[in-house]
Design goal:
Chain lengths: ~110, ~525
Amino acid sequence: MDITVVHHPFGVAEVTVSGRLNMVTAARMREAIEQAADANHPNVAVDLSQVVFLDSSGLGALVAGLKGVRASGGDLRLVRPAEQAKLVLELTNMGAVLKSFDSVGAAFPHA
Amino acid sequence: MPEIVRRSFRLHCPPDSVDTVQDLLATVWGHVPDLDAADLMASELAIVELAANVVEHANMGDPVEFALSIVVYGDRVEATLTDDGRVDHVDLQPRAMPGGDAERGRGIPIMQSLTDSVEHRRIDGYNHWTIVRARRAGGSRPRKAMPSISIAGVIDEMARQRALDDMGILDTPPEERFDRVTRLARQLFGVESAAINLIDGDRQWAKSVAGRAVVEMARDESMCTETIKKDEVFVVSDIAADSRYAHKAVPGLLNFYAGFPLYAPGGERIGAFCVYDSQPRHFSVREAEMLRDLASWVQQELTVSQELSRASEVQQGLLPHQLLSLPGWKTAGVCIPARAVGGDFYDWYPVGEGAALTLADAMGKGIAAAIIAATVRAVLRSAARFGDVAGAVDAASAALTVDLDNAGVFVTAFHARLDMDSGVLSYVDAGHGLAIVAHADGRSERLRSTAPPLGIDPDTEWTVQTAQLDPGDTLVVVSDGVLDLYDGTLGSLDNLVTLALLAQDPWEIIDAIRARARGTSADDVTMLIVRRDSD
């Protein structure tokens, strides 16, 4: 799994994850989300377009990230989840909690 | 329903992880080109969730070992995960998906919603978890309770694999006692190849090959994997012409095959004794009988190996397993026989306000020496209850003389009593002479032997000698096999003194000797160490 972080000037940290997001890598992504969010970038957009596999551990880490970001007054939204990740979000009824968008701009339009 | 692919893997976590599981799954899906993408995705996710659950919970944080079997049929995918975890409590009641803010607890509901049956069986202390996913047919997927059809075979195969593993024969070097049977078979039947093949997981491995036979191949390509399905001689005269096995024919190597199963002690079919040839060939009833006879010869040799390895376990079990509880002292020991069993042993046990210590070396090697060593240990142990150190050796000598005489062997022994408070070591050295004290100040003292070995002269007067162990001093007693790890002379004892002075802990000395002895020792290597803590 690879993670890259881009801080956008409009208050959004974009975290792009690629590879497998499972028991082995979940903790690392969670840390990356925590570190990416700061006072100037309260919102986090997690790009899942290159995640080939997401399981319950990976999903749990996204929920943990969401809770942490919300506690600081921001939000966490997903960008372009790949086919398999979409299936997992649907199966677990998490689509309403972890909302997906087509781009970072669409995820946080008013930022 | 036709079976399309069957694979089994063994994993050790760590270093293996759910990533390893996914990598292995990729190799399975490669054999099922028509597997629907949704079925693939669902099966993979369900299997990873199952594996993650076992890795996380099965051994309460300790490393976990498990086996994973995947069987794909025309209408379904079945996976069985078998763990030797200590946890036997399992709740597979259908679970609701947790709410949106839960960080955990979705694994099992995900697994359940993607599969058509989830089963758990606990057999012989192993957990078998089986999931079944029905494959899509014509765009729709039948959803129904679908009990596993592969599980019985999977469990039998696991028992078979365990029996094979327990025999300790896999990947051992060639042995003449097996090789002469394969050589003979080749000549007797006038074939190009003969082999003793064992079916291990996904591979076939040969303990012995003669002629052009190959040592290792994939199980899928093996003929012996067919032989182990039944208790009879299995013959295919013309493999290429037989549609069931034609894919296993190898031009120029394998077109005729005859084999008979080989068994583990519990009756599991672990492999086969076989002959094969590049040319089709008739195999007469008489030849089949001869093959059976040769196979039973191999079977006897396998049984001998099995008994030896049991004997080895028993002998290791006779070594002291508990550390002595001697406040202010540390003890350590090791015994590495050159063969499965050997004539060396060491022993310690509490006596009064201290301990009795023994290291002995029965002449010879192998089983004969091991029987003598076990006898000497038992006699010394029971004699130690009566009288002092000389009395014990005297009683042991009296009891053993006739036996040793009859066997025509003798035994060298160092037997001592340590007084925990004063540090006085009283000892009798019966022809052993390989004990030294490395003093904390760098001096060393060899404890000389003044008496003959046990079994030489029944009238020996056993004189007790003493040595003083002060704080920081180390007593090292070895068998002559340890000297052979250096230059084989008594000068090697200096190396041991240096080791003893440098080591922080007696087990460091043992580890150093163990490392030196690895794979190279021609003689039994045995060592006993007692160190008095520094003030």
